[in-house]
């Protein structure tokens, strides 16, 4: 990955010079105007996340986690404030430029998997490459590679309906990895999965984080899951309530052998 | 996204709902087939009319005995009995643009041979008549100028009369009764069939010398019609004017007075018929186009349903990096594929249908390449036009809401 240039241009980042800042939120507000009422989903978020971090976002329902992720994921624009991604203020970009950033820099993993039905695992994974105009041979090769990475090399031609929840989520992760993203965003990725499968997903995340240096931001309601991250940010009423490093971090690879095997998604 | 991928995705989306896609296409199929078949039938009818007009004779002019107005009462054609054989001779010899002419006197009589009898039209004329009108003989030939001068009882039979009076025998040389006079058959005419415009039987007639007709049957000394042949098509307008001027003088018609004759130019009639034919074709095509329009609305309807159904898919595509343009292109392509496949199927059906009409109804049909080309362009245009709004709707979706859509 490229080293981030705005270190010299942006004095605020000088502090973080040792680990380049990837994400920087400055006084971010998100207000949903529903006519009669205004919903203040985010009320002044200041935050920076360095390259290679693994952040878990926690907080009560309605505290603004998903809203935050949508801004981070360039799916939405803040009402006020700036969101820098690799030094670019994405709140100033137009829809086409945002789509391009989602395509090249970001990978999404959702609670509900969000795979295209009646489309094979392989074709689901290829999808981001289609919009990146990747050459067909290169696209195929990369799709095989990422599917192998999440342990689904033998499930390429299965349809989502023929896969378990855990397998579907792994297809979704493979899809998110397709275009070599800098950041992986996951909003409650284990919300629909049992605990063992959840840990397996966390294992994949930890490996991606450690081996490929991919920055991870993950929303979860479960503190057990949050403990696999390096840093936990807690939201409350649209504000950051706590921001702390994880002590005694859980390592999925170590936890897994001790968990009871559910013979669900291994063949 | 590359064109092949867009096409493949569109194809797959349409295959997913085979029945629905097929029914949607049906609208376009019927529309395109109808346009092609209707234009083919219209143009075929047009050609047939032109052919039959040509068969009336080449560069022909009709001089019709005029109507007579007494006060407010118009007595209609032939009410004035001033048109004569002398007029015809004058036209033939004094009008340089006319190369042949013949008078025509008409009546209706019962004709009898043996036990068979038949009521038919009698035309009294001169030998030049047959060549001016391009009438061919299936046996014998026209009567002679001498027979005309002698008012001989000779006749030429049309095919319908032959069929009714001589179901088995050869008519040539036989004698038939016309009214109560005997007539010797000198020739029979080749069949011409029904005329296209009026549907009347052009073979239901007998032709005799006009002198015989005037002296022995009608007792009139005037003629209803003079047919003249101009030296060329271009000359026929000049001929029309020259004939009018000549008859003005001969009939002593002063300026401002009404003509007691009318001169009709077949070229004008042909042009009028052609114009009528084009309007007819246009009318048929526009009626058929309405079904094409309905087909297009069907596409729009299905595409709107499809956009709603696939909101989540659109959300997913946008999340992984599809731009508004990507989404729009995808849905537009689906609509175009629908209408294009419908269009091509419609062409096959339209051409096949035209052939079927030709064989079943014995109509002349003319499938033009232009109408096929127009159909292709039109059906694709319909896909673009009616697919645009749904595609636009898809592209404008908010990715977050689309992803949340159940
Ligand atoms: N599109 C919207 N229109 C109006 N209000 C919205 C919209 N999206 C979110 N909100 C409001 O913004 C606030 C924050 O919502 P958000 O989805 O970010 O919460 P969350 O922390 O993700 O909750 P959960 O844990 O239940 O997913 C809530 O009060 C919610 O009702
Ligand atoms: Mg949420």
What global shape of chain B is seen?
Answer: elongated
User: Could you give the order of the helices and strands of chain B?
Assistant: HHEEEHEEHEHEHEEEHEHEHHHHH
Strand order of the largest sheet of chain A: 6-7-8-3-9-10
Measured as a percent range, the helix fraction of chain A is 25-40%
Oligomer: heterodimer
Counting DSSP E segments of at least 2 residues, the number of strands of chain A comes to 10
> Which structural category fits the helices and strands of chain B?
alpha+beta
- Helix/strand order of chain A, N-terminal first: EEEHEEHEHHHEHEHEEH
- Give the number of domains of chain B: 2
Report the C-alpha radius of gyration of chain A, rounded: 18 Å
Task: State the gist of this model.
With 267 residues, chain A is α/β, with parallel strands linked by helices.
Structure description:
The complex is a heterodimer of chains A (267) and B (406). Chain A is built from 8 helices and 10 strands. In chain A, a hairpin with a 4-residue loop joins strand 1 and strand 2. Chain A is globular and about 50 Å long. In chain A, 31% of the residues lie in helices and 25% in strands. Chain B has 13 helices and 12 strands. The longest helix of chain B is centred in the last third of the chain and has 44 residues, at 266-309. The two termini of chain B are 27 Å apart. The mean pLDDT of chain B is 88. The interface between A and B is medium-sized, with 26 and 21 residues. Bound molecules: adenosine-5'-triphosphate and magnesium ion. Adenosine-5'-triphosphate is lined by residues 32, 34, 39, 41, 59, 61-67 of chain A.
Supply the key terms:
heterodimer, A: 267 residues, alpha/beta, six-stranded mixed beta sheet, four-stranded antiparallel beta sheet, 10 strands, 31% helix, disordered N terminus, B: 406 residues, alpha+beta, 2 domains, six-stranded mixed β-barrel, two-stranded antiparallel ribbon, 13 helices, elongated, binds adenosine-5'-triphosphate, binds magnesium ion
């Amino acid at each position: 990955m490229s080293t981030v240039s705005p270190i010299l241009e942006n004095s605020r980042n000088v502090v973080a010079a040792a680990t380049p800042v990837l994400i920087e939120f400055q006084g971010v507000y998100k207000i949903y105007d529903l006519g009669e009422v205004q919903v203040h989903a985010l009320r002044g978020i200041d935050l920076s996340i360095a390259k290679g971090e693994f952040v878990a976002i926690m907080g009560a329902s309605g505290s603004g986690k998903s809203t935050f992720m949508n801004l981070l994921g360039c799916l939405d624009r803040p009402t006020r404030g700036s969101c820098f991604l690799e030094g670019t203020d994405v709140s100033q970009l137009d829809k086409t430029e945002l789509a391009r950033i989602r395509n090249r820099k970001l990978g999404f993993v959702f609670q509900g998997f969000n795979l295209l039905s009646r489309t094979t695992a392989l074709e689901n994974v290829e999808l981001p490459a289609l919009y990146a105009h990747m050459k067909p041979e290169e696209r195929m090769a990369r799709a095989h590679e990422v599917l192998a990475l999440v342990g689904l090399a033998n499930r390429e031609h299965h349809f989502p309906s023929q896969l378990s929840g855990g397998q579907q989520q792994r297809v979704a992760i493979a899809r998110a990895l397709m275009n070599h993203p800098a950041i992986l965003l996951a909003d409650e990725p284990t919300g629909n999965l049992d605990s063992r499968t959840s840990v397996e997903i966390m294992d994949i995340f930890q490996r991606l984080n450690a081996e490929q240096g991919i920055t991870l931001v993950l929303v979860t309601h479960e503190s057990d899951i949050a403990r696999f991250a390096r840093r936990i940010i807690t939201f409350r009423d649209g504000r950051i309530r706590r921001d702390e490093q994880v002590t005694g971090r859980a390592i999925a690879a170590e936890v897994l052998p001790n968990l009871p095997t559910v013979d669900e998604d291994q063949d | 996204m590359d064109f092949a991928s867009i096409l493949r995705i569109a194809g797959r989306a349409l295959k997913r709902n085979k029945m629905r896609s097929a029914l949607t296409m049906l609208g376009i199929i019927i529309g395109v087939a109808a346009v092609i078949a209707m234009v083919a039938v219209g143009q075929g009818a047009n050609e047939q009319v032109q052919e039959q007009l040509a068969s009336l004779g080449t560069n022909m002019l009709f001089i019709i005995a005029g109507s007579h107005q007494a006060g407010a009462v118009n007595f209609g054609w032939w009410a004035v009995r001033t048109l004569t054989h002398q007029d015809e001779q004058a036209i033939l010899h004094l009008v340089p643009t006319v190369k042949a002419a013949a008078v025509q006197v008409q009546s209706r009589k019962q004709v009898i041979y043996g036990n068979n009898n038949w009521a038919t039209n009698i035309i009294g004329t001169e030998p030049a008549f047959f060549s001016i009108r391009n009438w061919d003989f299936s046996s014998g030939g026209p009567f002679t100028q001498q027979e005309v001068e002698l008012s001989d009882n000779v006749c030429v039979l049309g095919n319908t009369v032959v069929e009714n009076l001589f179901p088995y025998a050869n008519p040539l040389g036989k004698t038939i009764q016309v009214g109560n006079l005997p007539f010797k058959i000198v020739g029979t005419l080749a069949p011409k069939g029904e005329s296209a415009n009026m549907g009347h039987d052009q073979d239901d007639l007998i032709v005799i010398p006009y002198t015989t007709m005037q002296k022995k049957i009608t007792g009139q000394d005037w003629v209803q019609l003079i047919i003249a042949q101009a030296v060329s098509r271009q000359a026929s307008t000049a001929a029309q004017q020259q004939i009018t001027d000549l008859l003005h003088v001969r009939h002593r018609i002063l300026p401002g007075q009404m003509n007691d004759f009318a001169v009709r130019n077949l070229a004008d009639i042909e042009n009028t018929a052609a114009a009528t034919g084009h309007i007819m074709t246009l009318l048929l095509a526009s009626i058929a186009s309405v079904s094409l329009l309905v087909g297009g609305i069907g596409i729009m309807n299905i595409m709107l349903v499809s956009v709603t159904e696939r909101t989540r898919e659109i959300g997913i595509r946008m999340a992984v990096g599809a731009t508004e343009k990507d989404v729009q292109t995808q849905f537009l392509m689906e609509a175009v594929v629908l209408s294009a496949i419908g269009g091509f199927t419609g062409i096959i059906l339209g051409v096949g249908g035209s052939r079927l009409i030709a064989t079943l109804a014995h109509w002349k049909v003319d499938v033009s390449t232009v109408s096929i080309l127009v159909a292709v362009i039109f059906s694709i245009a319909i896909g673009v036009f009616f697919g645009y709004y749904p595609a636009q709707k898809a592209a404008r979706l908010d990715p977050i809401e689309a992803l949340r859509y159940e």
